[in-house]
Design a protein that fits this description.
This protein is of the alpha+beta class. The chain has 2 domains: 86 residues, Winged helix-like DNA-binding domain superfamily/Winged helix DNA-binding domain (Arc Repressor Mutant, subunit A), CATH 1.10.10.10; 55 residues, Dna Ligase, domain 1 (2-Layer Sandwich). Helices cover 43% and strands 18% of the residues. It contains 6 helices and 6 strands; from the N terminus they run H-H-E-H-H-E-E-E-E-H-E-H. The strands form 2 sheets. The protein has a 3-stranded antiparallel beta sheet. A 3-stranded mixed beta sheet has the order 5-4-6, with no helix packed on it.
């Protein structure tokens, strides 16, 4: 938890009980959860908590790199995964369109594409994140 406190301080974000509780929720319970899941967890510990507060905190923590945010399905349900800050492991996600299973993988050849992308778009790329969707092995077998 101390490394996350350090990240908050470095990014000039207050270390609030709600932010600490959100980080602890992901560290102890789930790697991925919806804002609604976090809200239900927090409302047991905080009398005054609303879903907008949860979204604001998750967005703030995402901006400083503690979480990753992505769209799970067409309903725009966003899930947040705690990043491995300590190891600095760069990884991507693949999400099953049927059962919503989430897997991570560290195969990344982005550096070989970066120059071409920068030339074509006239952007200087500072960060990338990849989310793939497909059908997992279990769901493929169930469909047979």
């Amino acid at each position: 938890m101390e490394r996350y406190r350090k990240i908050l301080k470095e990014n000039r974000l207050k270390i609030t009980p709600k932010r600490v509780a959100i980080i602890k929720f992901f560290l102890k319970n789930k790697k991925y959860a919806s804002a609604f899941d976090v809200y239900h967890y927090l409302k047991n510990n905080f009398k005054k908590i609303g879903l907008p507060t949860v979204y604001r905190n998750l967005d703030s923590l995402t901006k400083i790199g503690i979480f990753t945010k992505f769209e799970l399905d067409e309903k725009n349900l966003f899930y947040y995964g705690i990043c491995d800050v300590e190891k600095g492991v760069h990884h991507h996600h693949i999400i099953c369109e049927r059962c919503h299973k989430i897997s991570t993988f560290d195969l990344c050849n982005f550096e070989s594409l970066k120059g071409d992308i920068e030339k074509k778009t006239c952007f200087s790329v500072s960060y990338h994140n990849l989310f793939l969707k497909g059908i997992c092995k279990d769901c493929q077998e169930a469909m047979k």
